[in-house]
Amino acid sequence: MTIISGKKREKIDRLAELAAREEERGVSLWQDAFRRLRRNPAAIVGAVILTIFVLVAVVGPFFVPYGPTDTMGIREGVVRVGQGLIPGHSAEHWLGYDHQGRDVFSRMVVGARQTLLVGVVSTLIGLSIGALIGGLAGAAAGLGGRWGRWVDATLMRFIDMLLAMPSLLLAVSIAALLGPSLTTVMIAVGMVSVPVFARLLRGSMIVQSHSDYVLAATSLGVRKSKIALTHVLPNSLAPVIVQATLTLATAIIEAAALSYLGLGNPDSAVPEWGVMLADAQPWLGIRPALAIYPAVAIIITALGFTLLGEAMREALDPKLRK
Length: 322
Prior knowledge:
There is one protein chain. By secondary structure, the chain is an all-alpha fold. The chain has one domain (51-70, 105-320): MetI-like fold (Orthogonal Bundle). The chain contains 14 helices and no strands. Helix 1 crosses helix 9 and helix 12 (238-260) packs antiparallel against helix 14.
């Protein structure tokens, strides 16, 4: 486990170092990256997938044909679970009914909003806490002298402890301690990404703290705290932003895994793709499509975030550009 965590730590630090290098050409880093993204087919496909996902999540719930909690199938006698009858798709119900007689299509659309909420909030939790720790450690290591190196070593040993644990095991442990709920899933998944964001920002800030503009600002008598906040930090955010895009994909998958294990929202009436996947498990023999629909949606959404994130990493990292 120590060898694995060491390799993971070296990979994160290497990504931070490469992404923090200054561009030698006249065009800015972000302008050049955006130009490369527009020519990257993977980035275009990922952006299209994410655009559709966000539109469905934000606008779709206002236009669903049926309420996500309406058990019309049971009420009308169409769904008879005891007899093994759960009808599939039809002209009125595009994805059929679930085991409680609810319209699956309406629940999939409304569930997209919950899935997006879990992914975004958990990523923001990991980003904010990780950036706070990584920014403090990076500023202390790069500009703090002997005292700063002590602060950096202390914070990084805590981060190394989190990195040494498998991410899913850490998320399950936190969720089990807090109890099953949607908030618990957000906190658990967010805490998993804290060490990655912390090490990325720390490594990037250390590289930037040795740049010529930092030396010039120091020579002019600018306070080190101001140099860290107004110069080093803004120029160190590129790898963190890329990692946030990739973390959204893993956050959705890990949230679905926690929900599948029964650690998510205990109220199955609130549609969420991970909860829908867990609820479909007893009915796989009768209607496996109840599990296939949310599983495919999770896979496609995670693929969109991954494609866009990897394309951004290639555009920003000089070692990976094509």
